[in-house]
Amino acid sequence: MDAETTPQPGQTARTGFFHALCAYVFWGFLPFYMKAVAHIPAIEVVAHRIIWSLPIAGALLLWLGRTADIRRALRTPRMLMMGLLTAALISVNWCVYVWAISVDRTLETALGYYINPLVAVLLGALLLGERLKPAQMAAVALAASAVALLTFENGGLPWVSMVLALSFAFYAFFKKTLPIGPAQGFFLEVLILGIPSLAYVAWLQSTGVGHFGGTNWYDIGLLLCSGPVTAIPLILYANGAKLLRLSTLGVMQYIAPTLIFLVAVFVFREPFTTETAVAFAMIWAGLALYTWSMFADARYRPVPPAE
Known about the structure:
By secondary structure, this protein is mainly alpha-helical. It has one domain (15-298). The chain has 13 helices and no strands. It is globular, with a radius of gyration of 20 Å. Mean pLDDT is 85; it is low at 1-7 and 302-307.
């Protein structure tokens, strides 16, 4: 590949930023879809998300001409185990998220995804050796304090928020280290999850309790849409994750929870208590600290001499 066709570092970063931004905005408005399917059990919704994502991911691989990567992954135990791990993490995340919105706990999902960027930052420091500035350490401490406050006030750990934050942060970490492209990795995940999902949906339909059949075209249409609303943002995110630092993704990840928060409070009208407001304020302060430290670091970073 010659110099004219080789992407420059700045171009690569801009491409990754655009992909990640589109994914986070898409996710920010996803609660509207999840409310529409709230009458369907969460596990059934997730099973259909997996099933109908599979042809989309497969068509993308055929278009890219990268099917050989999947054959290689299926023959490589390490890659197959990594795919199994990321598939398990994202399926846990999906199940909790779908269930939480269906039972009017959308605000807790927003809190979880607010915590997630700071968990990602902490993982970057612990597992990738990315150094944290004092302001960044203070940001993580503020997030931990917010979780402690909610635990004290509610008499228990905010488990919905914590499961969402931890599962997606670890998913991002392992996704970044999966030694195949983002589109191939997503196809591998839904391929692994596809067989049990198909078996589960077939069992539901055979027992007459499934929502994908008969003349209920509304439910059928909603479940068919689960493929695009799942695959499109996740493929965009996977491309962004491959091109951006984990810490940069950590900063961008508060776009989606901000939109989810606004939807939960002003559209779904979920209760917003004083304790919850204080917890959110602490996390917002932590995110502001971390973002400021990132900009300050970029401003004072020395420019390398010209060769």
